[in-house]
Amino acid sequence: MLNKLWGIMILFGIIFGACTGRIGEVGTAAIDSSKEAVTLCITMLGIMSMWTGLMNIAKKAGIIDALTRGLRPVLAFLFPGVPKEHKANEYMAANMISNVLGLGWAATPVGLKAMEQLKELNHGSHIASADMCTFLIINISSLQLIPVNIIAYRSEYGSVSPTAIIGMGLIATVISTAAGVIFSIIARKMGKKKEERR
User: Fold this and answer.
1) CA–CA gap between residue 99 and residue 168 (Å, rounded)
2) What is the 3-state secondary structure (H, E, C) of the chain?
């Protein structure tokens, strides 16, 4: 669907440029945007490599395991359907830690593994469990102490103060995460009441 949408937008832009006699500008913009995209990818690759490397060092040093143990009460509260020593807890904790540090790239692989584990606990059902929905909501709301991606984008595009976003980003993600957690708790309770009525 998105491919079709992008294709229509590109086609519309080319037709509009041709009709208004600005097809040359469209071509120039396409070339400039391609250069910009490559430069941005190289910048983001460097930042991603650095933070992913730091995460691997933290894992080998036992820091991630210690943080995972520290998150166990939070995980038990948010995901009551997941057994205490289940592998899903480790993946969910790693995902949350990565997101808090603003490492969306590092969070994605462990997030997918967490979902696989949660699906197994859900007996492979095609209908998402309450724990799967809660995890998805928390992953999307993404509490961030350091929004690495945004800082990198702001730096790449010449911001005078790329880190000025940290305070507002923290406030926004705290609110979005709190709203997501409250919503998932309410939805879980409503689901239990419906089951009891049956």
Assistant:
1) 16
2) CHHHHHHHHHHHHHHHHHHCCCHHHHHHHHHHHHHHHHHHHHHHHHHHHHHHHHHHHHHHCCHHHHHHHHHHHHHHHHCCCCCCCCHHHHHHHHHHHHHHCCCHHHHHHHHHHHHHHHHHHCCCCCCCCHHHHHHHHHHHHCCCCCCHHHHHHHHHCCCCCHHHHHHHHHHHHHHHHHHHHHHHHHHHHHHHHHHHHC
d(CA 113, CA 146): 24
Question: Over the stretch 152-192, which tens digit does the pLDDT of each residue have?
Answer: 778 877 888 888 888 888 898 889 889 988 988 888 888 77
User: Alpha carbon of 170 to those of 64, 94, 126, 185: distances in Å?
Assistant: 22, 19, 34, 22
Q: What is the largest CA-CA distance in the chain?
A: 67
**Distance of alpha carbon 67 from alpha carbon 89, whole angstroms:** 12
pTM flag (> 0.85): no
For 48, half-sphere exposure in the C-beta direction (CA atoms, 13 angstrom radius) is 13
Q: Give the Cα separation of 15 and 18 in Å (integer).
A: 5
d(CA 80, CA 129): 11
The model's pLDDT over 80-105, given as tens digits with 9 standing for 90+, comes to 889 888 888 888 988 888 888 777 77
